[in-house]
Amino acid sequence: MHHLRRLRPLVPALIVPLILWATVIESDEALYAKAPLRAITETSMLHPLSFSPILVWEKNVNATHYEIEFFREQPAICYPDTASSEAVWRSDDVYASSYNPPLFLFAADLLGRAPLYWRVRALDFDGTPVSLFSAVMTLYTSAAVAPSVMTVPLPIASSEITAPLLYPVYHWVRPYRAHAFEVALYAEDPPENPDAEPIDTMTTQLSEIYDQKPRITQGFFYWRVRSLDEAGEPASDWSPVLKFRNDPKDNWEIAVFGDSISHGGGHISYGPADHEFSWLSYLDFPAINLSMSGDTSETMLERFEADVLPFHPRYLLILNGTNSLRAGVSAAEVIADLEELKARCLANGIRPIFLTLPPINPENIARAFDEPTADDWQTQFSLVNAFLRTEVHIDVAAAFSTHPLLPTELALDGLHEDVIGKQLIAQTVNRAWPETKQQADRLPAQ
After folding, report:
1. How far apart are CA 174 and CA 306, in angstroms?
2. How far apart, in whole angstroms, are the C-alpha atoms of residue 135 and residue 118?
3. Are 32 and 131 a contacting pair, CB within 8 Å?
4. How confident is the model at residue 146 (pLDDT cuts 50, 70, 90)?
5. Of 390, 365, 362, 402, which Cα lies nearest the Cα of 378?
6. pTM of the full structure
7. How many CB atoms neighbour CB 113 within 10 A?
């Protein structure tokens, strides 16, 4: 019924000691340090791009941003590990694996007349390269190719890439001259029905929007995006339309209910649209993602009726409480919320399965988000996890138990696990699922 493309975990063992984590990370970093980034966009004299092209390269999940260089001529000497003095344009303000270069600023006289050249490499949070530069790519342009005045949308995780998101994140390639963006959401496909009116619109100056509303569909929802000028007026045509589906009629048996750890994202620059950073992507079974970034144990209860009951899953995997505890809410209050959530689940025929809370790293949280963490967070986490282990649960925290803090190698920002960390969560769930499912079936759900 649900045709989802699953990602194969890279870490073979369920419980990986920290020394093995370090070995895996170091070998990955060594590989990235030796390997050049691979440019995807290719052009030729017969297949040029417009004067305002969009260049694309492979995503590097160890990067937080990228550095791109442009040349007016093929550089005579170009070292793969060193920025070139021959570059006429350089930017490291690139936070996606795509870029719309302002060719008019540094090569207007060459457009349509002679090729330009470019290359790109991946950087970490401190600006240290985590890859070599890509090969120098030739960029042919032509006035005969119409500039892409549309903002190019990227598939969101509410597609068939991974588990659908009840709270979608809309993400797109940012045109260089764009000031802001407008996203329009429809209940019908605008190209098929030109008179279709949006059911909602959202604006932002960023290249993504986290939807603050649960999007429960009857069939599909459709969305598109366009650029706005400084006056808030349209500055581009609408993008092509993308669609997503969160229809209770699809009868999802399993749902995940949590905060941003489950909503998706990590390594500072990646969000739920980056499916590599969703632990649901690595599950052996389909599940709908009812998580919401920023959720607390209190807001989880507030949205239970509206967000969970319409789907009425048989099993509800619950990973929540981290945001409450790190903000200073007591373990007793969080446990009371979780007990109430369990009662509401059972009263509605839903079998709750709790996931214990992985550790966090306050120093890295402060570095990434400039947010404080409660001094006694470890004590409070331990109390909540002790309670959860008395319930039907999956002990996710045990996969991180070899270190009292969440290692930087597993979560750069100290809160959201990166790819290997998300794989560890999924592997823990996959391994425990058959037995835990049987335990949940014995719960007195009405």
Report:
1. 34
2. 8
3. yes
4. confident
5. 362
6. 0.89
7. 10
Q: Are strands 65-71 and 288-289 parallel, antiparallel or unpaired?
A: unpaired
**Pairing assessment for the beta strands 180-186 and 200-204 based on DSSP bridges:** antiparallel
- In whole angstroms, give the CA distance from residue 313 to residue 400: 29
- pLDDT value of position 154: 60
- Smallest CA-to-CA distance from 138 within 46, 32, 33 is with 46
- What domains are there in the chain, each with its CATH number? 35-139 (2.60.40.10), 152-244 (2.60.40.10), 251-441 (3.40.50.1110)
Task: Tokens for 373, please give them.
Answer: 């963490």
Contacts of 314 (CB under 8 A, 6+ apart): 253, 254, 349, 350, 351
> If you average pLDDT over residues 186-192, what whole number do you get?
95
Instruction: Judge contact between 311 and 287, C-beta under 8 A.
Output: no
**Cβ proximity of 264 and 156 under 8 Å:** no
Task: Name the token pair of 105.
Answer: 């600023």
- The overall average pLDDT reported for the chain is 90
- In three-state form (DSSP H/G/I as H, E/B as E, the rest C), the secondary structure along the chain is CCCCCCCCCCCCCCCCCHHHHHHHHHHHHHHHHHCECCECCCCCCCCCECCCCCEEECCCCCCCEEEEEEECCCCCCCCCCCCCCCCCEEEEEECCCEECCCHHHHCHHHCCCCCEEEEEEEECCCCCECCECCCCEEECECCCCCCCCCCEEECCCCCCCCCCECCCEEEEECCCCCCEEEEEEECCCCCCCCCCCCCEEEEECCCEEECCCCCCCCCCEEEEEEEECCCCCECCCCCCCEEECCCHHHCCCEEEEECHHHHCCECCCECCCCHHHCHHHHCCCCCEECCCCCCCHHHHHHHHHHHCCCCCCCEEEEECCHHHHHCCCCHHHHHHHHHHHHHHHHHCCCEEEEECCCCCCHHHHHHHHCCCCCCCHHHHHHHHHHHHCCCCEECHHHHHCCCCCCCCCCCCCCCCCCHHHHHHHHHHHHHHHHHHHHHHHCCCCC
Q: Under the phi-then-psi rule, with left for phi > 0, alpha for psi from -120 to 50, and beta for the rest, what region is 311? A: alpha
| Distance of alpha carbon 358 from alpha carbon 22, whole angstroms | 18
Residue 155, both tokens: 């598939």
> Which are the contacts of 370, defined by CB distance < 8 A and separation ≥ 6?
none
**Distance between CA 215 and CA 105 in Å, rounded?**
42
pLDDT of residue 155: 54
| Distance, CA of 291 to chain centre | 13
Round to whole Å and give the CA distance between 35 and 231.
44
